[in-house]
Amino acid sequence: EPEVTQTPSHQVTQMGQEVILRCVPISNHLYFYWYRQILGQKVEFLVSFYNNEISEKSEIFDDQFSVERPDGSNFTLKIRSTKLEDSAMYFCASKTGTPNTGELFFGEGSRLTVL
Amino acid sequence: GESVGLHLPTLSVQEGDNSIINCAYSNSASDYFIWYKQESGKGPQFIIDIRSNMDKRQGQRVTVLLNKTVKHLSLQIAATQPGDSAVYFCAESNQAGTALIFGKGTTLSVSS
Is there a contact between A44 and A58 (Cβ–Cβ < 8 Å)? Predict the structure, then answer.
C-alpha cells in the first residue's frame, strides 16, 4: 500500500540551527501539507502546497519556515533558526483530488527536539 | 473564527461496548468533516468523513453523525475492540478548502 514517508524520524538540534525535514508524498498525489503536533496537544496546520506554490499557511508558519518541492518526489520543510518552542512532531500529508474532499494521508512524523 | 473541539479528553470503555466520541465546531460555514485516529507514535489515520449535506454516514463499525443545528459531530464505534484504543480527532475543512483544522483529541481506552 502506498504511504507517505518522512525522514528523519527524530532530530535533535541546538536552538538557532537550521533544520530540514523531508517527506516523500504518495506518488500520484497533488496536494501536500505540513502539520505539527506539540506533545499531548492537537494537530496544527502549518501549510498546504499545490502546483508548486503555497496555497494556504497558518499563523504558525512565519518567516522562519519554508517549504520546497525540489524534485518530483520530495517535499521539504525548513526551519531556518529553530526555537525551543519548535520542538514537536511534524507530520507531512498528501492527497489527490480537490482540497475539500478525500482522504488526507499522513506520514509517521518527524520528531524535532530543540535544545 | 475557525475552531474545532471535543467535549471529553478521555473515554474508557469495556471491550464489546459501543463508544461515542463527540466534537463541537464553531464555523457554521464548514462543509466537510473528518474523523482521524492516531495511535501512539504514529501519524493520524483517516477513519470516516461526512459532508454538510448529510447528517449520517456509516462505515465498517463506525458511524459519523452531523448535527448542523448545534454544530456537533460525533463518532460512534460499534463493538469497541482493544485495537480501537487511540486518540481520536475530529477535523473540519477551513473555509478556503485548503486545509483541515483539527480539534483537540479524545483518548479512547478499551479494556478487555
Answer: yes
Question: pLDDT confidence of A28, banded at 50, 70, 90?
Answer: confident
Judge whether residue B2 has pLDDT over 60.
Answer: no
User: Å from A55 to nearest chain B CA?
Assistant: 7
Q: Does B97 touch chain A (CB under 8 A)?
A: yes
A67/B contact by beta carbon, under 8 A? no
A14–chain B nearest CA distance, Å: 23
**Is the model's pLDDT at B5 over the cut of 70?**
no
Contact B112, B47 (CB under 8 A): no
Picking from B31, B108, B52, B27, the residue whose alpha carbon sits closest to that of residue B75 is: B108
Outline where DSSP puts E strands in A38-87. Answer: 43-50, 53-57, 65-68, 75-79
User: Is residue A83 a contact partner of residue A114, using CB atoms and an 8 Å limit?
Assistant: yes
pLDDT digit string, tens, across residues A81-104: 999 999 999 999 998 876 566 688
| AA identity, residue A11 | Q
How wide is the angle at C-alpha B97 spanned by C-alphas B62 and B68, nearest 5°? 50
Which residues neighbour A3 within 8 Å (Cβ) at sequence distance 6 or greater?
Answer: A26, A105, A107
Looking at beta carbons, which residues of chain A come within 8 Å of B38?
43
If one counts every other C-beta atom within 10 angstroms of the C-beta of residue B30, the result is 22
Q: pLDDT for B48-93, tens place per residue?
A: 999 999 999 999 999 999 999 999 999 999 999 999 999 999 999 8
